[in-house]
């Protein structure tokens, strides 16, 4: 049985796959990778299923020993990875020999980097998914972020190693982008035109207290037209909700299934993976698109990702 | 009865891959019964491309795969489900009890709640345990049921500052709602007691002790009964 020994966990490293869908009626949020596009591509680099469990690192990466070797790939942001001191390319599969140490440091680009390993990280599934649900401490590796000394089992796999990388035009297209496109939210009309204009025109800063549940934004406060009372309702991934204070929050992968604040907009599905790469203090802007554009962009993105031409052998 | 709500249902696009259905604009048992029927029908006859459902008081959020269908298409399929609701028999709601040890270390806000309403703590307990509640929906965290409606005399605003951590099993009230915290999480509701029953457990057929539509009563137990409870 191959394994990964955690010598240093990094700032916040959790086991994630693509999450658990379909348990909203029980109040269970999907969780899953904050940048699912990076996770999917990283898994395909090591010839895994796209949904295989990997280690999601946040802002500062960890140090990992592979006693029996492994085939790995790093996807997402550049955390300055090195294998026994020699630089390791992002978006490229690599063979780790028994006893080698993979070390990562602080990010040089976005917020998250995924360590994908051929065979996937083998943890018990909770409601069909390996994703860590941090709020309630279930799923993933013992329901918690990784710690020094943890030993992660690697799932079984067959086949020989061949180097594989993501074509540069694809990885370049995935590099952090500071404009998030959005569609109007279900309570957009609760906001006066002046608030909507401010939201479209302003630059917002990602607040320090942001996490996988939500990204708090610093910038113009968004006033609401008085006299409306919200009844708690379901919230969608990427919803931009505005509490009474007026500072918007982007609800993210660990969000609650329902919420009681009005939503001015929603980040489009094709840009959700970019939200997962936003760091505290990053500056972003919002650009409104139509429903048709949002859908076309998603279909186009998925078509491009589903192609095998995006990989170089 | 559902028919009037069917024709009053309002659809709103929440995101490029989700659609909200509102069954009226206020919390009502009629809207809830309609939601319950729709949820049962969707569970029995799932729609291909629907990924998740988020029920709430008088609305349902439907997450779908926009690569497969548009908002217009999912809305038209859902309207077809509305037409079949009257033919879909709904099982009688489950009747469940939540044994609760009120006050003291188990319900640290009981005294204050009593004082706010100028009653004795015993009256708060009696009132809270006097009615049958409806599980309107689950949200916040896995297994957290929004139960209504609290006797009007007990309606209490939330804490001004939520607690950093509330013990698992805490029985709490906020506005006209009551609920049980399944896990130790932050929380702004007022804690009046605690149950030894696990609200969410992986090794149980129904992981969540409560489901949408259940009818629930709280039954007072002593600290000794709490300590001796088997299901902990």
List keywords for this structure.
heterodimer, A: 313 residues, alpha+beta, Cyclophilin, 2 domains, seven-stranded mixed β-barrel, 28% strand, globular, B: 232 residues, Gyrase A, domain 2, four-stranded antiparallel β-sheet, elongated
Task: Describe this protein's structure.
The complex is a heterodimer of chains A (313) and B (232). Chain A has 313 residues and is of the alpha+beta class. Chain A is 14% helix and 28% strand. Chain A has 5 helices and 23 strands. Chain A has helices at 36-45, 168-173, 193-201, 272-275, 291-306; strands at 3-8, 14-16, 54-58, 63-66, 70-76, 82-83, 86-87, 93-96, 100-103, 112-117, 121-122, 151-154, 165-166, 179-184, 203-206, 214-218, 233-234, 239-241, 249-251, 258-259, 263-267, 283-288, 311-312. Chain A has a 7-stranded antiparallel sheet with strand order 7-6-9-4-1-12-11, with no helix packed on it. In chain A, strands 14-21-18-19-16-15-22 form a 7-stranded mixed barrel. Chain B folds into 2 domains: 2-87, 2-Layer Sandwich (Gyrase A, domain 2); 95-228, Cyclophilin-like (Cyclophilin, Beta Barrel). Chain B is built from 6 helices and 13 strands. In chain B, β6 and β7 (145-148) form a beta hairpin. Chain B is an alpha+beta fold and 232 residues long.
Q: What is the secondary structure topology, with strand pairs?
A:
The complex is a heterodimer of chains A (313) and B (232).
Chain A: E1 3-8, E2 14-16, H1 36-45, E3 54-58, E4 63-66, E5 70-76, E6 82-83, E7 86-87, E8 93-96, E9 100-103, E10 112-117, E11 121-122, E12 151-154, E13 165-166, H2 168-173, E14 179-184, H3 193-201, E15 203-206, E16 214-218, E17 233-234, E18 239-241, E19 249-251, E20 258-259, E21 263-267, H4 272-275, E22 283-288, H5 291-306, E23 311-312
Parallel strand pairs in A: 14-22
Antiparallel strand pairs in A: 1-4, 1-12, 2-3, 3-10, 4-9, 5-8, 5-10, 6-7, 6-9, 11-12, 13-23, 14-21, 15-16, 15-22, 16-19, 17-20, 18-19, 18-21
Chain B: H1 2-8, E1 10-15, E2 18-22, H2 29-44, E3 50-55, E4 59-64, H3 71-84, E5 95-102, H4 110-116, H5 121-128, E6 133-138, E7 145-148, E8 163-166, E9 170-174, E10 177-180, E11 185-187, E12 190-194, E13 215-220, H6 223-228
Parallel strand pairs in B: 5-13
Antiparallel strand pairs in B: 1-2, 2-4, 3-4, 5-12, 6-7, 6-13, 8-11, 9-10, 9-12
């Amino acid at each position: 049985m191959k394994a990964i020994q955690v010598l240093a966990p990094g700032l916040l490293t959790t086991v994630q796959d693509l999450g658990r869908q379909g348990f909203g009626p029980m109040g269970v949020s999907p969780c899953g990778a904050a940048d699912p596009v990076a996770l999917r591509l990283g898994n395909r680099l090591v010839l895994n299923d796209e949904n295989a469990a990997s280690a999601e690192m946040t802002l500062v990466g960890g140090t990992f020993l592979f006693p029996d070797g492994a085939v790995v790939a790093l996807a997402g942001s550049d955390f300055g990875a090195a294998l026994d001191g020699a630089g390791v390319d992002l978006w490229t599969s690599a063979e780790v020999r028994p006893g080698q140490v993979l070390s990562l440091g602080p990010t040089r680009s976005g917020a998250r980097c995924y360590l994908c390993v051929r065979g996937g990280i083998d943890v018990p599934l909770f409601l069909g998914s390996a994703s860590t649900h941090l709020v309630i401490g279930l799923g993933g590796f013992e329901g918690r972020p990784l710690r020094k000394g943890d030993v992660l089992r690697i799932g079984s796999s067959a086949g020989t190693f061949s180097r594989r990388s993501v074509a540069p035009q694809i990885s370049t297209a995935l590099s952090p982008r500071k404009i998030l496109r959005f569609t109007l939210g279900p309570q957009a009309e609760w906001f006066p035109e002046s608030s909507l204009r401010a939201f479209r025109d302003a630059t917002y800063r990602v607040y320090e207290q942001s996490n996988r549940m939500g990204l708090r934004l610093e910038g113009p406060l968004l006033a609401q037209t008085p006299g409306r009372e919200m009844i708690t309702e379901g919230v969608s991934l990427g919803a931009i909700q505005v509490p009474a204070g007026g500072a918007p929050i982007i609800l993210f992968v660990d969000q609650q299934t329902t919420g009681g604040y009005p939503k001015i907009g929603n980040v489009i599905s094709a840009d959700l993976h970019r939200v997962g790469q936003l760091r505290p203090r990053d500056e972003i802007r919002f650009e409104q698109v139509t429903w048709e554009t949002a859908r076309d962009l998603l279909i186009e993105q998925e078509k491009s990702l589903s192609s095998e031409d995006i990989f170089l052998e | 009865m559902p028919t009037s709500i069917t024709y009053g249902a309002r659809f709103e696009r929440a995101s490029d891959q989700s659609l909200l259905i509102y069954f009226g604009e206020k919390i009502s048992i009629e809207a809830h019964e309609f939601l319950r029927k729709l949820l049962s029908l969707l569970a029995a006859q799932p729609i291909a491309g629907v990924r998740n459902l988020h029920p709430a008081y008088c609305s349902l959020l439907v997450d779908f795969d926009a690569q497969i269908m548009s908002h217009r298409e999912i809305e038209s399929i859902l309207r077809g489900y509305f037409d079949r609701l009257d033919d879909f028999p709904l099982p009688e709601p489950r009747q469940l009890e939540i044994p609760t040890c009120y006050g003291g270390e188990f319900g640290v806000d009981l005294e204050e709640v009593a004082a706010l309403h100028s009653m004795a703590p015993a009256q708060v307990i009696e009132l809270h345990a006097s009615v049958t509640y409806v599980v309107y929906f689950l949200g916040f965290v896995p297994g957290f049921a929004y139960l209504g409606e609290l006797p009007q005399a007990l309606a209490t605003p939330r804490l001004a500052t939520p607690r950093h951590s509330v013990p698992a099993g805490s029985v709490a009230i906020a506005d006209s709602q009551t609920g049980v915290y399944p896990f130790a999480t932050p929380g702004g509701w007022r804690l009046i007691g605690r149950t030894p029953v696990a609200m969410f457990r992986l090794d149980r057929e129904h992981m969540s002790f409560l489901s949408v539509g259940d009818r629930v009563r709280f039954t007072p137990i002593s600290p000794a009964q709490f300590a001796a409870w088997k299901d902990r």
